[in-house]
C-alpha cells in the first residue's frame, strides 16, 4: 500500500535512501573499502567499447553512465534509445558487450535491441528491477537493482538504483582496466557510501522546493539545463515534469542554449539550471548569466559554495549538500523528482497514473 503517502510516487521517492543503501551493500566490501562485483564473465580490460541501450528514464541512467565510463574507466561508450538502436543496423565490435537497462524487464524495444546485439555476438549485461522477466531470461549477466516494486508510472527509485549499480560497475571497470589508483578508488567509494544520508537530507528539507514547484506549476514551458553528467539529468528533469504535470519541458545541454533555445527565454519561462560544483561549474554559470541577461527566471540547483558564487543571478536557489562530483547525478535526481511531484500536486493531475502512459511498454 501507500502507507502514509498520498501517492506511490512520493512513497517511492522517499524510499531512495534505503534503496540506494541496500543496492550498495551488494557491491561494496566494507572491510576493504572497495567495490566487489558478483563474479561475471565480462572482462572490461578487453573491451574497446561498450554499447548501452534502453528507453526513457532507463536510457537516461545509461546516458549518465556514459560520462562515468569514459572519464573514470577510460572506456568509450556508444548509447542510443532502443527504438533507434534496433533498426539502425549498426555494426557492433566482435566480442563486444552490450548493456541494457530496464526497470520492468519487458520493454519491447529494449528486448528487441538486446536480441539484435546478441545476434551480433555481443555479451549481454542487463541491469533490471524485475528479474523474472523477458530481458532477465535472455541476458547473459543480470545485475539486480534492489528497488522493490515500483508502482508509480513515473520512474524514481528505479532510476537512482540503476545509477548506483552503474556507478559500482564503472569502478569495477576502472580497476579491471588499471586506470584508477587506490586513493581515487577509496575516495569514490566513500562518495557512494555517503549518498543515502545526503539523499535523506534533501528529502527532509523540501519546504523551499515546494514553493518553487508551485510556481513552476503555472508555467507553460520549462527549460532544464546542465553540462557533463548533469546534461542527461536535465533531460530526466524535463521528462519527469512532462509526464506527470503535462507542462511542456525541454532538457538541453547548457552550451547548446545559444544555438537556438535561448530565443525562448523571457520572464515567463522558468529555467532550471543544474550546476553541481564540478570542473564545468564556471561554464554552466556563464550560461546562467546569459539567461539572466535576457530576463529569464532562473532556478539554480547547486551546493552552498556554488550558490554563494553564482546565486545572485538566480530567482531561486535550491541548496543541496556538498558531494563528490562523481555521485552528484544520483543526488541531483532527487530535487528534480520532487519539483515534478509537487508541481503535479499543485495542478491536481493523476500522479500515479498519468494519462496515455503505461508502467510497462510491451508494444513498440
Ligand atoms: C519515465 C518512465 C519511462 C520508462 C521507460 C522504460 O518515468 O518510467 O520512461 O523509464 O518506459 O521502462 P523500463 O525501465 O521498464 O524498460
Automatic annotation (TrEMBL):
It comes from the Bacteria. Keywords: Aminotransferase, Cytoplasm, Glutamine amidotransferase, Repeat, Transferase. The active site is at 359 (for fru-6p isomerization activity). It is an enzyme of class 2 (transferase). Residues 40-179, 212-354 form the SIS domain. Its EC number is 2.6.1.16. GO terms for molecular function: glutamine-fructose-6-phosphate transaminase (isomerizing) activity. Homodimer. Catalyzes the first step in hexosamine metabolism, converting fructose-6P into glucosamine-6P using glutamine as a nitrogen source. This is Glutamine--fructose-6-phosphate aminotransferase [isomerizing]. It comes from Dongia soli. The chain holds residues 243 to 606 of 606 of the full protein.
